[in-house]
Amino acid sequence: MSAQPDGPYGPLIPMPELTPDALRAAVARIAPSRVPALTQHLFEATTNAQQTQSLAPLRAFVHSWAVFVAIERHPQRAARLRELERLVDAAEQDPADAIAEIRRIRDAAEAEAGL
């Protein structure tokens, strides 16, 4: 895992390396209930990679879970994302601002993960 300078409200864990094992370990620490989903996704990605003889499914797996970890390792960021997703799902107001903020959160997470 790479070291990151943190203040008192910094991330729960450092950003892990972008490998299935490192991502699994990170998810086990910050969102243990999501480990079964990660394991299932990895199984499906591996199977698809073998069937298609392509690394694309494994790259998609790493991308998806790296972004998840980058978001979830910051509890306030993760809570804000969930709040924005609820606003969009509720469809009670114009979702444009919420969608734009969701995109900014995801873009920041991708950059943080080095994607």
**Strand percent estimate:** under 5%
- The string of secondary-structure elements, in order, is HHHHH
What integer is the average pLDDT? 91
How many beta-strand segments? 0
Structural class, from secondary structure content?
mainly alpha
Q: What report would you give on this structure?
A:
The chain is mainly α and 115 residues long. Helix content is 70%, strand content 0%. Helix 3 packs across helix 5. The N terminus is likely disordered.
Helix and strand arrangement:
Layout: H1 20-30, H2 35-52, H3 56-72, H4 75-90, H5 96-113
Helix pairs in contact: 1-2, 1-3, 2-3, 3-5, 4-5
State the main characteristics.
disordered N terminus; 5 helices; about 120 residues; mainly alpha
